[in-house]
Amino acid sequence: MPIPSAHAQGTFDHRMAVFSSDEEFVAAALPFLAEGLAAADEPPPVAIAAPDKLDLLRDALGGDAGRVGFVPHTEWYSGSAANAVAQGAGYLAEHAGPRGRVHLLMEPDWGGRAGRSVRESTEWIRYEAFANLLFAPLATTALCAYDTRTAGPAVVAAARRAHPGTGVYEDPLRIAAELDAVPLSPVPHDARPLPAPEPHAVRTWAAGRGLPAADAELFAAAVCEAADPLDPVSQVLLWGEAPGCVCELRSPHRVDDPLAGFVPPPTAGPAPGQGLWFARQVCAYVDVRDDEAGAVVRLQYA
């Protein structure tokens, strides 16, 4: 998928609705879904939201409910923010109309994974910002629904900066730079060094820290995939206990690409040879930091 510059004007229509009651949610959602139903060359619109809100929409739509898709947001947003990119890209490739045309009402699961910590919420704001670049070549229309009863004021304020038309929209790359300006936590003094990101060594270490065999295999694969574009890797450090096993890689070469690992590849699912994309799909968090000495990539499995 080609990625335009941060200032390119694509056809992706990325909207935001903020509400604090069920009535306000329905009032914002119905006109949007009606717009999708009336759009030419589009499949039916889809509402991705909390199950109770989907019930509200079915009742409010009446006879039109059968013409709208309904997906509980716990099924759509089932993993990391990077997983949401893959979910969206896969859905559009399979179900959208010409040039990605479809109306999607989307409510992140702020009562679940997306809102479970400041760190997690930060990654979702990054996803919202990068959506403006990743989906810019497409004619998709998205309305992101923010319920102030589950998404706090800090999250809503940050999300406004990631949505055009809010009056406070910021360049997605500037938002990413701000998020990456937060220092990573210090490396523990007892972190284990490895001479190289060798899969057997990483897998054996992870299994010894309590990861089940299949998870240790995935973690080792993610480390090796992340290391591939960094070649040469000058330092490998491992620490943590299952499920939160961590590997930090250092390279003398900078990454110099805030979208590294976020651009969907042409394959349907994660596969070897995809580098940071594979790592982001497998791990809960992948942090990339460039500095005067090169780059640091830190992977946390869960």
Nutshell version of this structure?
The chain has 302 residues and is an alpha/beta fold. It is built from ten helices and ten strands.
Notes on the structure:
With 302 residues, the chain is an alpha/beta fold. It has two domains: 13-180, Rossmann fold, CATH 3.40.50; 192-300, 2-Layer Sandwich (Heat Shock Protein 90). It is 37% helix and 18% strand. It is built from ten helices and ten strands. The protein has helices at residues 22-38, 51-61, 73-76, 81-95, 118-134, 153-160, 172-180, 199-208, 213-227, 276-282, and strands at residues 13-19, 46-49, 69-72, 103-106, 141-147, 192-194, 235-239, 246-251, 285-291, 294-300. Strands 1-5-4-2-3 form a five-stranded parallel beta sheet, sandwiched between helices. The longest helix is centred in the N-terminal third of the chain and has 17 residues, at 22-38.
Total domains? 2
**Overall pLDDT:** 93
Beta-strand proportion: 15-25%
Distance between the termini: 28 Å
Key descriptive features of the protein:
302 residues, alpha/beta, Rossmann fold, Heat Shock Protein 90, 2 domains, 5-stranded parallel beta sheet, 10 strands, 37% helix, elongated
